[in-house]
Amino acid sequence: MAAPPGPEVQAMFAEIAPRYDFLNRFLSFGIDRRWRKRLMRELALAPGNDVLDLCCGTGDLALAFQKAGCRTVGADFTAAMLHGAQGKEHADQVRWVQADAQALPFADNQFDAVTIAFGIRNVESPPLAMRECLRVLRPGGQLAILEFFRIPNPLWRGLFRFYFRYILPLLAKVVRAGRTGAYTYLPESVDDFATPTEFRRWLEESGFDVAMEAGLSGGVARLFLAKAPGA
User: Does domain 7-227 bear CATH number 3.40.50.150?
Assistant: First the structure.
């Protein structure tokens, strides 16, 4: 079983924060960048829109929205991740907030879009976080979530399970940040997480209308786009 999200997971991600970007690029072969670009294309936000990038890590997606002209807030529950984000170019143009996704420190109806890239799985109660996202979205606002799920194709799933369980943890140990257990936690947390069908139900029960669900790179990741009720 994967370790439950909480102080232990927060400490683990704080430990890997200084090398978080390097490990993600190295271990995903750079594909994570393509997935984030797809998320931004599907949202199709306009300059001046208000965006909350939740579970923002070291801020790559938040900074991409800022570069596109959006008014952007990056929020994460790990202070060390936010510290890494604040050291990047143009980071002073993003508002960075340490926050729990289950109790957001923002007013109702504040954002045009909320995004979560590979973070909802680390939240203790994803449905509670989804309800918080709905609360802070304006009527008709969009929620975009990128996440890992079990891959539906048995052959593809077997290959990636082998990679995640055996190759990835070994590669991660090349640097000190990879020796924390985070990249053992990753495949275990994917196995223990909801199915895409269950995840869609969580979104709908939280009050969202699911507008799109797409498997990326053969189903290695999935993108959900949901809308808040209203005009």
Answer: yes
**DSSP for 99-133, written as a single string:** --TTS--S-TT-EEEEEEES-GGGSS-HHHHHHHH
Q: Write the DSSP string, the chain.
A: -PPPSSHHHHHHHHHHGGGHHHHHHHHHTTHHHHHHHHHHHHH-PPTT-EEEEES-TTSHHHHHHHHTT-EEEEEES-HHHHHHHHTSTTGGGSEEEE--TTS--S-TT-EEEEEEES-GGGSS-HHHHHHHHHHHEEEEEEEEEEEE---SSHHHHHHHHHIIIIIHHHHHTTSGGGGSSHHHHHHHHHHHSPPHHHHHHHHHHTTPEEEEEEEETTTTEEEEEEE-S--
Tell which wins on pLDDT, 122 or 38. 38
pLDDT of residue 221: 87
Q: What is the pTM of this model?
A: 0.87
